[in-house]
Structure formats: structure tokens, C-alpha cells
Amino acid sequence: MSAALLRRGLELLEPPGRAKAPPGLQRGRAGPRAAGAARRRKRAPEPGRNKATVKGRVVKSAIEEYHKKKPVNHLRENLQYMLKGQRVADKAVTEQVLAQNRGRKSKDQPPEKTEKKKPEGTVFTEEDFRKFEREYFGIP
């Protein structure tokens, strides 16, 4: 992202009461070659201090740096936040949100639920079959 686009975005986000900086203080290009000239221009060394020396430098503690960069676990606060709200969304709304977030590819679609077929049992018992044989075939 260029600096000009970044500045425009920040101007859009400024509260309406604040005014722009005066034109003399704004950094802008004088021409198409100004960017290259700025890169070629060498900075004059400041007489304030020599950066090659250690004098005046603050030693940073490695433990403090580790603790600063250590990830923080926010699970407990998040759970408390989620549990304090007792409002539950409708089933239709949650299904709609899930459908919108799901991709259009077949691999993203949930598998269709198939109803299990119950094994078909007979109404007749073995005793009924024996009785039918005796009546129909005449076997005693």
C-alpha cells in the first residue's frame, strides 16, 4: 500500500472536528524525480552521540522481552463472556449462517443423512407355519 493511499485512508477515519495539517508541513513530491533524489540524498551525521559506543545504551532483560512476546491465554475470559449471554439464536438462523460460510464445492458440503432401514421381520411365527402346513398339505 502506498503512502498516499494510507494518508487518504487516515483522512477518512479522522473525526470531523479535526482540520488538516497546513500545506507547508505536508510531505509531498515536487516532481517525478523527487523520490529518487530523496533516496540518493545522504543524511548528515548528527553531532549528538556516536551510535558505535555503548555509553548511554539501556540493557534489555531477555526475561522481560520473553514475557512481553509470550502468548496470553484468553480462554477463561472468553468462556465467561460467552456463558453470560443467555440468548440463543434460532435453529434456522444458525443453519443459514453455516450455509453461507460453507463453500460451494462438494467437499465443503456436509454428507447427506441417510435413514437406516430397519430389518424387515415376519409377522408369522414358526408355530403359525407348522399350523399352515398341517391345514394345507394335510400332514399330521
UniProtKB/TrEMBL annotation:
Skewed-composition ranges (Basic and acidic residues): 106-120
Bias (Low complexity) ranges: 1-37
Main subcellular localisation: nucleus
Sample GO molecular function, one term: enzyme binding
Region annotation Disordered: where it falls in the sequence: 1-56, 98-125
Database matches in InterPro entries: AROS
Pfam family, one: AROS
Sorted UniProt keywords: Nucleus
Span of the signal peptide: none
Localisation per UniProt entry: Nucleus, Nucleolus
One Gene Ontology CC term in the entry: nucleolus
Family per record: Belongs to the AROS family.
UniProt name for this protein: Active regulator of SIRT1
Organism: Orthonyx spaldingii (Chowchilla)
Taxonomic path: Eukaryota, Metazoa, Chordata, Craniata, Vertebrata
